[in-house]
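User: Please go through the entry that follows and flag anything odd:
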Amino acid sequence: MDDVTEYSGDYIDACRWRIEAEVAAFDLLRQQAPGDGTMDAPIQNIADEYFVAVASQLEGMFANRSRAAEGSRPGPLHEMRAVVESLNGNGGRFAPPEGSGLDAGTTVLRLDPGEPIMLDREAFQLLSDAFFDSLEETYGETS
């Protein structure tokens, strides 16, 4: 597929809704757990894998975006790609591309290269919100 330089507002909104629904489903699971703490560890175990999958899903929705349109400055679009690639192929340690400028000073998740990525619900929400904001600014339809 060719590099995508523009996404319709409808497509971006539909993808945002789908990701928000995934987060809401996790929140419902957490709310349904007994309040005595007996499910805290199992829910955290689920969260550890769940948000990796949702981040991969989100990145996949826009995987054909033009890298040239993103530019070379570090930002949430670069970060999401690097986080997903690191979670899926680097044992969960942050491995941004060399020369990308992604480090604790430039990433939403405040990650330095080599650090373990902890993508819980709150971290995912921060990154996905920044990702969508940057995506709309960079790739949102202009007409």
In short: The chain has one domain: 9-139.
